[in-house]
Amino acid sequence: MSHFSIFALARNAMSYHENWQRQWRSPAPKASYDAIIVGGGGHGLATAYYLAKEHGMRNIAVVERGWLGGGNTARNTTIVRSNYLWDDATHLYEKALQLWEGLSQDLNYNTMFSQRGVMNVGHSLQDMRDIHRRVNANRLNGVDGVVLSPEEIKAMVPIMNTSNSLRYPVMGASFQPRGGVARHDAIAWGFARAADRLGVDILQNCEVVGVQREGDQVVGIETTRGVIKSKKIGVVAAGHSSVIADMAGIRLPLESHPLQALVSEPMKPILHTVVMSNAIHAYASQSDKGDLVIGAGIDSFVGYGQRGSFPVIEHTLQAICELFPIFRRVRMNRQWGGIVDVAPDACPIISKTHIKGLYFNCGWGTGGFKATPGSGWVMAHTIAQDRPHALNAAFDLNRFNTGHLIDEHGAAGVAH
Amino acid sequence: MLQITCPWCGPRAESEFSCGGEAHIARPLDTDALSDEQWGDYLFMRKNPKGLHREQWLHASGCRRWFNAERNTVSYVFTQVYKPGEALAESVAAAGGAK
Fold first, then answer.
1. What mean pLDDT is predicted for residues A114-142?
2. Neighbouring residues of A143: CB distance < 8 A, sequence distance ≥ 6
3. Neighbouring residues of A326: CB distance < 8 A, sequence distance ≥ 6
């Protein structure tokens, strides 16, 4: 596997860039592996990479029913931040953010991680109390954050309407300077290439249709490309988690909803940070291609169709136009949906199950992209050591029986 | 925009409705007798099927009545709508399905 560098670029220029190596192999499935990851999105590929890199497990496979990174990893609004409220959630997302900060170097792949800051705007007294509380909680946990006044917001984002003409005027915002955006496809491809380089088999067009057990131990999966045996199976299947859980006789507290997003026509740089508003509900940033990347709340019904209803888009754009009047003439270019597995407390489930060797990493709902490297890192630990890391111990599936839910609906920033 | 058939009002736009989640989850009668696992199961665990699903819907901007629906969660087509207490077989079939 060739190392990407300025020298490689120069060398390959001499042969008209016709000799770059494939970034990952497409091997035939082996009969068995030491561990199998079900789900070839960002989280699944990250899990496989860290299993190989941190825990020395090389005889592993990632099984993906479609093409790698083609699910929610390809469909999110690319925001990265760690400004959640509760300690357990904050530490997990902050682990992810710290991994993001070194990820391009670690993977030898340009993830285009841009720490341009993330702003969460407040539009009422209660919004501002919540913002102050969350920023203070962040700082107590060693995570960067400041509260901005409307004047400071206006100085950073001149195009925002901070006047009283808004139905719910801007009263301030939280700002996490180390947050930002990254290229979603790059993270899938970067982890895939790095994992493949360490010997991980990535098996695409390989859909799981059954989970095999012997007593209370998992022994393998049935797929559209045959039976593959393993005593360790990590299910990282996002919106399809319940489908796989059903095959194993496990119940999950998830509902899979459509989450839509859209991009505008490309424009010259005009929005230099990420702006999110809970109250008037939209979030936007501007990609390096120049298009606005816009998202909002889920469609309220269960949906596996990777599409939602137009009123959601309409309400989102009303919020964008209200907050950024200059965007009223901008045309939208492309719109799509993903399938987000929402948990009752808007927090993930990264857990062993009552079946030995079967682990689930799911329930990230509307906020999985930002956590991609951290999610993979703790899931790899959980699988390799057969016990959770301190960072994901609180996200056990049994918290829905003990009552130890961790309510992050506010910090999630996306209407449920 | 889906078109949803209210059993009382007939076909209306999706924006008139509110989705109430999975239908036919009976609240346990003697909750004190339940274990933590059973209670958590009732409160939180859901079928979340990829395919036919039975749901509760509220005609929020219309007659404001609750009704049940069987809908395909992949195609979003409504196969049946039926009033609370009705069995699926006696239901009024949805006219036209989702648009």
1. 97
2. A82, A83, A90, A94, A176
3. A159, A270
As given in the structure block, the two tokens for residue A83 are 């400004």
B31 touches chain A (CB under 8 A): no
Nearest chain B residue to A308 by CA distance is B1
Q: Which helix (H) or strand (E) holds A180?
A: strand A180-181
The minimum CA-CA distance between A189 and chain B, rounded to whole Å, is 28
pLDDT of residue A416: 76
Q: Distance (Å, rounded) from C-alpha A308 to C-alpha A306?
A: 7
* B48 contact A CB<8A: yes
Please report the pLDDT score of residue A130 as a whole number: 96
Kindly report the nearest CA distance between residue A106 and chain B, in angstroms: 37
Task: Report the candidate in A45, A73, A36 with the shortest Cα–Cα distance to residue A370.
Answer: A73
| Beta-sheet pairing, A358-362 with A233-235 | parallel
| Cα separation of the two ends of chain A | 43
B1/A240 CB distance under 8 A: no
Distance between CA atoms of B84 and A59, rounded to whole angstroms?
53
Q: What is the ipTM of this complex?
A: 0.94
Per-residue model confidence (pLDDT) at position A1: 61
Q: Which of A93, A96, A305 is nearest to A187 (CA)?
A: A96
CB A147 within 8 A of CB A176: no
Measured between CB atoms, which of A242, A254, A309 is closest to B1? A309
**Band (A2; pLDDT cuts 50, 70, 90):** confident
